[in-house]
Amino acid sequence: MSWLTVETPLPSGPLHIAVTAQGVAAVGYLGREGELPRCTDESKIAAVTGRVGEYLAGRRRELELPIDWSLSTGPHREVLRTLFHEVPYGRTITYGELAARSGVFAGVEEPGLAARTVGQMMAANPVALLVPCHRVVAADGIGGFGGGRVGIDVKRWLLTLEGVLEPTLDWNGPL
Question: Top EC class per UniProt (predicted)?
Answer without folding.
Answer: transferase
